[in-house]
Write a structure and sequence with these properties.
The chain has 2 domains: 173 residues, Creatine Kinase, Chain A, domain 2; 94 residues. It is 47% helix and 15% strand. The protein is globular and about 65 Å long. The two termini are 30 Å apart. Belongs to the ATP:guanido phosphotransferase family.
Length: 357
């Protein structure tokens, strides 16, 4: 697959599929952190080792391993322009750390962008599997298959007592981070989210924004993930997170029903005001765009808007990010220019979706 295909399509192929509870859960992700024996961890290694290891991984996994049944593309970070790396970050295919700090890093991507294996990020391997809707167990099963494939070729740094050894002590043990991306507009509107987040934190889970640690919950999209990796099995971690997510789904649906019963006309007005804003604006900032897209997605889920597909939120949340905008319009853009181009792209996309339906 040509690199341009990863960069030019805003929505990953797996995003076009419907998963369980996909009206609220946008995606499920499992990430495994792994390091190799006899190699310094990336946080303390030098460039010469990193370059050697990246080349060795490419050779051993792609040139010598005939058991690889996945359609993968090997992408070296040093060969990408800054805006290209930024697009991959915006699509959640690589981390900001890999894009900004790892000169000798690389990424192995599957054709459908469901699987992403980061090399020489904080750890030697970061295996990531993404599924639509609430499918954490399915994500874990696929991540374990990739893990087994890599382990047939390399020896992991592993301790019988501590488990998998990682650069950050918080990942020691299973090395597993499971997360779910959720659209929770009704809980935000009713302000229930303010009491829910502290309660979730007390359960050993964490709630973050759309791009993980340190990011904002743009468009009422929240990432819920585990904090504990040591002392629990992978299945228990995924099971506990799934249980909490199911409760959040019930609370969001209850909040939506309450808004329909008590503030139906106000809610409908909010949805169509946002639709009008996005359909006619000539300048729009990213935060306002994200808010309006969230309202439109809610309007689609509640049946107010019938001629726009549900995945519009996923697609335009990526298309309106700085990296993708600059890639789409073919050059560097100032913040003011991005606001103009963002508005233009949204108008164009909404019109295309209406024409398709």
């Amino acid at each position: 697959m040509a690199m341009n295909e990863f960069l030019n399509q805003a929505i990953s192929p797996w995003m076009n599929q419907n998963g369980p509870d996909s009206d609220i859960v946008l995606s499920s992700r499992v990430r495994l952190a792994r390091n190799l024996q006899d190699f310094l961890f990336p946080t303390v290694s030098k460039g010469e080792q990193d370059a050697h290891l990246t080349a060795k991984i490419k050779h051993d996994l792609f040139e010598d391993d005939t058991e690889n049944s996945w359609e993968f593309e090997f992408i070296t970070m040093g060969e990408l322009e800054p805006v290209e790396k930024r697009v991959l970050v915006e699509k959640h295919l690589i981390s900001p750390k890999l894009a900004e700090e790892s000169v000798y890093g690389a990424c192995i991507l599957s054709k459908n962008e469901e699987i992403s294996i980061m090399i020489n990020e904080e750890d030697h391997f970061r295996i990531q599997c993404l599924f639509p809707g609430l499918q954490l167990l399915e994500s874990l099963n696929e991540a374990n298959q990739i893990d087994d494939w890599i382990e047939r070729n390399f020896d992991y740094a592993y301790d019988e007592t501590r488990g998998y050894l990682t650069s950050c002590p918080t990942n020691v043990g299973t090395g597993l981070r499971a997360s779910v991306m959720m659209h929770l507009p009704a809980l935000v509107m009713t302000r229930q989210i303010n009491r829910i987040i502290p309660a979730i934190n007390q359960l050993g889970l964490v709630v973050r924004g759309i791009y993980g640690e340190g990011s904002e919950a743009l468009g009422n999209i929240f990432q819920v993930s585990n904090q504990m990796t040591l002392g629990k099995s992978e299945e228990d971690i995924v099971g506990d997170l799934t249980s909490v997510v199911k409760q959040l789904i019930e609370q969001e649906r209850a909040a939506r029903n309450a808004l329909l019963n008590t503030s139906n006309i106000e809610l409908e007005d909010r949805v169509f005001r946002s639709y009008g804003t996005l359909s006619h604006s000539r300048i729009i900032e990213s935060k306002e765009a994200a808010k309006c897209l969230s309202d439109i997605r809610l309007g689609i889920d509640l049946g107010y808007i019938k001629n726009i597909p549900r995945n519009i939120l996923n697609e335009l949340m990526i298309k309106t990010q700085p990296g993708f905008l600059q890639r789409y319009f073919g050059g560097a853009l100032s913040p003011d220019e991005r606001d103009i181009k963002r508005a233009s792209l949204i108008r164009e996309c909404l019109q295309d979706k209406k024409d398709e339906n």
